[in-house]
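Practice problem: predict the structure.
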Amino acid sequence: MDTTSLPILLAFTSLLLGVVAVVIFAYVVLPKRRRAKAKATEAPAPVATPTPPPADEPPPAPTKRTGKVKQHSLFVIFNQPDDTTDARLTEWLRSKGAHYDAIKKVFLIDGQQASNPITVANAFPPGEMPDLLRGETHEPIRGVSLLVKPPLHKRRNQQMHVYVELAKEMNETFSGDMLDADREPASESTYAQIIG
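Answer:
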């Protein structure tokens, strides 16, 4: 091997390794940064209490959602949360066969389709619930979110019927305020829209 071929071989190898590094950066690092930046710019929706419409104006017509809904949401806000409310919620969850998901920190109710369970999560702060079935200590729960994914096919909406019945039952049991995904009071048209 002569003396000029070794530096040329090393230069070619380093150039090849540089191209590989640029490709890895472009296909691995940049997409992760874009996703992280997109998550950082998404602001969570503020939780606001609904204001009743003025008495002289007619109530607004229910709005139809455009596009596909990723997840149905209903919120039950308890009027006077305390330890007795938590005890009633614990018994209600037991009676519905709810089980606690320790990873997501929510309760799941199988309903008609165990593959698409109804999720019961804390409304304040959004998300995590204490394991009430095991007596985990916590602040009194002020409200819960009921969440379920819509079926892929309308003929398989048995779970939506269960979801609506659970929401109505919970609202009656806890005498709370039932709100829809837009933080507006839920009505029969809201339930009809969920059932489809």
